[in-house]
Here is the input.
Amino acid sequence: MKFARLLTIILLVQPFAIWAIDLQPNDIVAPLPGKSHAMISYVNTDNSTYYRNGTVLTTALPKSASLKSPDISTQTGILRVSTSYALSELPAISYLQLPYGTIKPAGSLANYQEDTGMGDLTFATAIWPYADREKRRYFGVAGYLTAPTGSYNSQRLVNMGENRYKSDIQMGYQQAIVENLDGMIAVDTMWFGGNSQCAISCLSARTTTLNQKPLTTTQLGPIYKINQTYTLGYSYFYVAGGATTVGSTYLNNVVNTQRYMLSALAYYPFGRISLQYGRDMEIKNGFVETRRFILRFATEF
Here is the structure.
């Protein structure tokens, strides 16, 4: 029982990583074909208090660390290059995305090593079976594949890379509600490949295998267009699933999180600038995310 409890704690360090496929306001709007864009994002997050089944936990960890005042901060730069086109006369877009950043345990977790390096490479393609620009109604389907190209060391607790493949299928719908107000909803499910090189993060002296059940995210909210330049958005997220198995031991550490994101977008002739801020509202298992700040710049080339 003690081993399983500690194992659950260690494995739930990982939710500071961006698991869900978060959409910005108007991401569901079908793109015009023949356009290429580059987007640079800066993502800053901070995770603190640990919860187990909805209760704060301060159990001691190896290396004389504890969960009394944990802090896990990330700073990540993300480069995304995309191109839009027509596929059987339907709008479509594909992109490649590569992160680089630092994950740093601090507070009562300061004894653990930080990691700086490349994250995992993601390839995505989306297609719009339905797009009515006059009525502002859009339905899109996207597929994502993430390859284990990022920095990873089985002897570290935290890593920029996950040493496993991930795939995701997402569906989203957006439509006009009133003159300047749209509503959107999207649902995606992520599947995880196995990590056969899990050691310290699995509390094991030798490498073992980490497997994870699918993780489903629902996001919805309003999008308000102030004028041709400025747009505001609010998104609510509900994340569920993602329980893990280490070796042959199943851990009932289901992710059950509610969070929000506020967005402000500015469209200028030289490109789009967006600011986003959010945090967890309720969490059942894991380290609560107390801050998520994102600054993005996108331009056509």
The longest strand covers residues 70-87. The longest helix spans residues 2-11.
